[in-house]
From TrEMBL:
Annotated organism of origin: freshwater metagenome
Parts forming coiled coils: none
GO terms, molecular function: hydrolase activity, acting on carbon-nitrogen (but not peptide) bonds, in cyclic amides
One Pfam family it belongs to: Amidohydro_3
The organism's taxonomic lineage, starting at the top: unclassified sequences, metagenomes, ecological metagenomes
Domain (Amidohydrolase): residue spans on this chain: 44-509
Protein name: Unannotated protein
Length: 571
């Protein structure tokens, strides 16, 4: 007698092996049998006739650290087949907090700026009542719909140890040792690893870089070395934007070597025009391998349609010469854009050749949202078209629209319904490279800026169903076993007898993501971008159905993954 049988489906087991018709029998949290179970009995039966049954998808780059308190379903990720999510990325964990309330307040405001989480939601939806990583993990244990794991973030460690000096100077040897002690405590409690960032897009609300960007190479390596005593832990790092110089290549290799852990860096975008850049960055894996380390690039499998604004300044602060301006107050930004000389200077910087040029091609971008009556008729149109009507340059046109709206205007690239085939060819080529791993959803973050928590169903619908560029067996392997192996996650990512029963039942002919909409369901009344899925019949986590059709069940069977217990391995 089984607790659950999924009957009549084609099993795509996550290994890349060809599908096979089989039933799956579950007892408790694990798969008991795979084969012909036509005469077996079960408490619950899911009919998978005409469907594909796969392992649950594993999302290695999320920011659900705060969302986990106000939305225990962790929507919409499970609707798209995700049954395991890794958080605490980019150095932005919310534990430890320490005992000084000012540190928690700082981290809250930092997240609102750098990860696009509404401040009112963070204030009203998160209790902020823990001091240590152990207490934070305990608060979330046995409360969530899916499996989750959390890293310890560098910026939190720095702020707790150094206070306001965390965004002023390098740490002393004594402060580094205290940070290492807090990290060690977190790993001992089961945190999955350590994350940090040197990205120029990461700045706080006070006009400073985030704390991790003030760290020295020695500080970073000292923290990484702590992981060597904790098998089954992982590093995540955001290097500086642009091509990797020798220093960056050597740094990431050494981080992995001293940690005796794999490192994944974020993020690798694939485009037909950047093949040389992709190869140069993926060579970081070769440099690390030659030294006994492991470095892997995290690649986004879909276009991120950013909604940019001068108020947040996120992404725009990575334009060379713009960082200090984007850190200014709203009033100071308004004054600069009114000043002809300053506006001209910023426009020239944006028009120069630089790694962020894609985000400053104003002519091709559209106005998403604008609220002042003076801008009526602008939303949904390209800035180039509006500029021609007004007889202005696209840059001046954007400035005038934003100024009329008090900088509230959002703008970005238009959504392309049918993206070029060569773009998807570049993506598939990158996914197939063993030096890359598919992910970068950022689920839980940038809530009004972009949505990519639906990356799995977009990947399946575009690359497998619509374009036929890869088999479903290969795609499922990239969404399951590959990320499971990177993190050393035990008994997940493959459908084999004895593994945990994390399962997705899907229609391979219709699976995909619904249109993106605004959903007004965050604490404090804030909104987020959201998309349901279609073509997914059922999602099971640890033997319990958590999604049926397009609805969540009441079950919350997710495991809070602990390093050393639920993960294994080291270099």
């Amino acid at each position: 007698m089984f607790d659950l049988i999924i009957r009549g489906g084609d099993v795509v087991d996550g290994t890349g092996a060809p599908r096979r018709r089989a039933d799956i029998g579950v007892k408790g949290t694990r798969i008991e049998a795979i084969g012909d179970l036509s005469t077996a009995q079960a408490t619950k039966v899911i009919d998978a006739t005409g469907r594909v049954v796969t392992p649950g998808f594993i999302d290695v780059h999320t920011h659900i650290d705060a969302q986990a308190f106000w939305d225990t379903t962790l929507s919409p990720s499970p609707l798209h087949g995700v049954t395991t999510a890794i958080a605490g990325n980019c150095g932005f964990s919310i534990a430890p907090l320490g005992t000084n309330p000012a540190d928690g307040e700082y981290l809250m405001k930092m997240l609102s700026r750098v990860e696009g989480m509404p401040l009112e939601s963070l204030q009203q939806g998160v209790p902020w009542n823990w001091d240590t990583t152990e207490e934070y993990l305990a608060a979330l244990d046995h409360t969530l719909s899916i499996n989750t794991g959390f890293k310890v973030g560098h910026s939190a460690l720095r702020r707790v140890v150094m206070g306001t000096d965390a965004t002023v100077r390098e740490a002393t040897p004594e402060e580094i040792e205290r940070m290492c002690g807090l990290l060690r405590d977190g790993l001992r409690a089961g945190a999955l690893g350590f994350s940090s960032s040197w990205s120029t897009t990461h700045n706080d609300t006070e006009g400073h870089m985030v704390p991790s960007r003030y760290s020295s190479r020695g500080e970073l390596l000292a923290l990484c070395a702590v992981l060597a005593d904790f098998p089954g832990t992982t590093l995540e790092f955001i290097p500086k934007i642009g091509l990797f110089d020798t220093e960056t290549l050597e740094l990431m290799a050494e981080m992995s070597v001293v940690a005796k852990s794999p490192l994944n860096w974020n993020v690798l975008q694939a485009h037909p025009s950047n093949k040389a850049e992709r190869e140069q960055k993926l060579a970081s894996s070769d440099v690390a391998a030659a030294r006994g380390g492991k470095v892997v690039g995290l690649t986004a499998p879909m276009t991120l349609n950013f909604r940019l604004s001068f108020i947040s300044g996120f992404i725009l602060d990575a334009v060379p010469g713009w960082e200090d301006v984007m850190l200014l107050s709203k009033g100071e930004k308004l004054a600069l854009l009114v000043d002809p000389a300053e506006r001209r200077r910023l426009g020239e910087l944006a028009a120069a050749e630089h790694p962020m040029r894609h985000f400053t091609n104003w002519r091709r971008m559209i106005i998403h949202d604008t609220f002042d009556p003076a801008n009526e008729g602008c939303a949904g149109r390209t800035i180039g078209a509006i500029a021609e009507e007004r007889g202005l340059s696209p840059w001046d046109t954007l400035c005038e629209i934003a100024l009329a709206d008090g900088l509230r205007t959002s703008f970005g690239h238009p959504t392309v319904e049918d993206e070029p085939q060569d773009l998807w060819e570049a993506r598939v080529e990158t996914w197939r490279d063993p030096r890359a791993v598919v992910g970068a959803s950022d689920a839980g973050a940038h809530l009004d800026m972009f949505l990519s928590a639906n990356y799995s169903t977009v990947m399946l619908s575009e690359a497998v169903v619509k374009r036929g560029m890869m088999s479903i067996e290969e795609a499922i392997n990239l969404l399951t076993a590959v990320p499971a192996d990177l993190y050393g996650i035990v008994d997940r990512g493959r459908l084999v007898e004895g593994a945990y029963a994390d399962l997705v039942v899907l229609d391979e002919h219709s699976v995909g993501s619904n249109e993106m909409v605004y959903k007004h369901d965050l604490p404090g009344g804030a909104s987020r971008l959201y998309a349901d899925a279609h073509g997914i019949d059922s999602v099971v986590c640890n033997g319990v159905e958590i999604v049926r059709g397009t609805e969540f069940t009441a079950a919350r069977p997710g495991t809070l993954l602990r390093s050393g217990r639920d993960t294994t391995g080291s270099l």
